[in-house]
Amino acid sequence: MDIRSRDARWGLLLPISPAFALVYYGVLLSKIKAVIKGIRSDPVTYWALIALLLSGTVSAALAPNKGQALLNMPIPLVFILIYSLGRWGIVDARDFLKAVTLGCGFLGLVVVVSHLLRLNIWYGSFPILARFNGGRGYVLGMADNGLAAMLEAGVMGGLGFFLYGSRRRWLYLGASLTSLMGIFVTLSRGSMVAACGGILALAMMNAETLKRHWKIVVALCLVVALCITQSPTLQKRILSIPNLTTNRSNIGRLQIWEVSWEMFKDRFLFGSGPGHFGTIYETYRPQGYLEARSPHSLYLFLLTGWGLVGFLLFFGWMAVSVVKPILQDSSPYRRIAFAMMFSFWVHVLFNDLYIAHVPLIMGCIAHPDLGAADYPREESPSAVGKSRSAAVQ
């Protein structure tokens, strides 16, 4: 990884705070001509944007509060546009993915150290490293589930780059472990499940590579198991994940999902309107059910707000734009990027979150810099330059 690369520098910063992501989006807009050209050259992305614009407008027009719905309608469009910044705006996709991994690892280390020191540092009313003295942690604008979700890409990225023998492979493995330890500190059950899903996806795509490193894999599993045994609170959180009978949080989610499904069935085609969940939910909520402003699932967020039409358009676009490239050219880098992304889409089964670097990683999956499965495991700078020149030509 060349730290002098623009994309590597920003990749290191992205996991630290959403504020860095907003700045990086602005930096990538300097490539707006290339991004627009890329969108126009890709029929799937081009027509998905148009179709979602039309269907979202219909959803907003049918909503009770049309102004509010129109303000929220562009959410899936913005997600696809940020994906486009990653696909056609990022130049050094490999360096970017490695840097994001190390950035997550650094954030995980900060979370673990802050927890051990019980830090509670504020700048006026703004929390810097806060709520570690009894809470689940807060780092520069992200807390609890959101903070944990920022770390997920580091777990899979670090494992992937270690398994493929990247230069400084032990550094990447360390980043994977500190990312995972950071997730444990936040006690985010959604992130724990998501990390397991991402690791499973990485393992399934790299079975042969795992076999060659089975001793290290077993050692890592023992280290993680040992860490879990040292924290009764963490053990309790993990054991509560499958508890659907007495755990109040799980029961509450099931109640919200049940009501969300009823909402969807009544307005299944175009939904209740973008941004209208909280209002419509109250009209459906049975007495005694949990109050909610969101469905606690990104999938239900789209289904209830944009309806089946918007849901199918968005995830249909994602299937073609993200899954198809890895089926056509399953290079090591693409497999790693896919696993880094996959954990997010597992996590949002249980939460409606947005993590700034995820759509950029999705864009990288189809990036030409990640293609060619016959690339050597670790290239010299000259070889990288030649391969990139060939990809551009």
- Sheet/helix structural class: mainly alpha
Shape: globular
Annotation, overall tally of beta strands: 4
Helical residues, percent: 55-70%
Distance between the termini: 23 Å
Task: Look at the structure and give the mean pLDDT.
Answer: 90
Radius of gyration: 21 Å
Tally of alpha and pi helices? 19
Give short descriptive properties of this protein:
single chain; 3% strand
Fold topology:
Blueprint: H1 6-13, H2 18-28, H3 32-41, H4 43-61, H5 66-72, H6 75-89, H7 93-117, E1 121-123, E2 126-130, E3 138-139, E4 142-143, H8 144-163, H9 169-186, H10 189-205, H11 207-212, H12 214-229, H13 232-240, H14 248-266, H15 277-284, H16 298-328, H17 332-347, H18 358-365, H19 381-392
Helix pairs in contact: 1-7, 3-6, 4-5, 4-6, 4-16, 6-18, 7-8, 7-9, 8-9, 8-10, 8-17, 10-17, 14-15, 14-16, 17-18
Describe this structure in words.
70% of the residues lie in helices and 3% in strands. Helix 4 (43-61) packs antiparallel against helix 16 (298-328), helix 8 packs antiparallel against helix 17 and helix 14 crosses helix 16 (298-328). The two termini are 23 Å apart. The chain has a 4-stranded antiparallel β-sheet. The protein is mainly α and 393 residues long. It has helices at residues 6-13, 18-28, 32-41, 43-61, 66-72, 75-89, 93-117, 144-163, 169-186, 189-205, 207-212, 214-229, 232-240, 248-266, 277-284, 298-328, 332-347, 358-365, 381-392; strands at 121-123, 126-130, 138-139, 142-143. It is built from 19 helices and 4 strands.
Short summary:
The protein is mostly helical and 393 residues long.
